[in-house]
Amino acid sequence: xxxxxxxxxxxxxxxxxxxxxxxxxxxxxxxxxxxxxxxxxxxxxxxxxxxxxxxxxxxxxxxxxxxxxxxxxxxxxxxxxxxxxxxxxxxxxxxxxxxxxxxxxxxxxxxxxxxxxxxxxxxxxxxxxxxxxxxxxxxxxxxxxxxxxxxxxxxxxxxxxxxxxxxxxxxxxxxxxxxxxxxxxxxxxxxxxxxxxxxxxxxxxxxxxxxxxxxxxxxxxxxxxxxxxxxxxxxxxxxxxxxxxxxxxxxxxxxxxxxxxxxxxxxxxxxxxxxxxxxxxxxxxxxxxxxxxxxxxxxxxxxxxxxxxxxxxxxxxxxxxxxxxxxxxxxxxxxxxxxxxxxxxxxx
Length: 348
Description:
three-stranded mixed sheet, 70% helix
């Protein structure tokens, strides 16, 4: 479906006829490769069941942890502030980022031949850069929120109004959409007629474009410039903003400094964990991609599950809100009463 949408948005790119290819191959501009083979994380059959259990537990933890943050923020009126509004959207984006490829990777651990259709491969690329690019912008928005709260506290309510928060979220998705469409515009009509093995557990542009039956140096350079500009640019903005915030915090009182440091430590940890692998993959031009598989696991799976831990264990307000949520929905004796009722029904 997404491949068809992209084909409508972008007119076909004419590929010059290559006499070294069979005539039947030159008669069409469509890809001859209908599916790709994903090599996955490991080729060891004995390791597959173990990886299946591990990543199934991790993915379940991602969904439950981030959903708990969203539920806590929406149900507690004390958390209806710009910072927690952005945090809830970060949790939603993390759930989406972890879901574009992880379920298929988990399912592939149970099969020997790991394949993905050409359309599904393009869909993975689309969603990866949509959610990945959007999360970069969202992390910058969260840094801007902390900058205003710490450096301009008297104007915080005015600057970070509800309207501004909504604009920041819309801007996140617009940048993500523009980023992913601009990436696919250069690859959707590439001719694929030879090798179709992708050395990863999902499709990504650097790995897929090098399988095309044409010179992709310029396209690879455009991909590096596009993704590298977004990731490196966002990272530099974050470094500058957090540097200004830390300088401002040093001039404040000890109480405010402790609270601000706790919040900033959580934000900086997330930034390093997320941007480190992204910058290495997309800014390091034409690398061998031997380590990219491990780094891809890190920023698509490990970071989304670390975010709930980082933002809850280091945040007193979140822990208090979760305790209140627990006491509301799981009152003392509620579980034991339900268990007794179930047992009495079975006896009767």
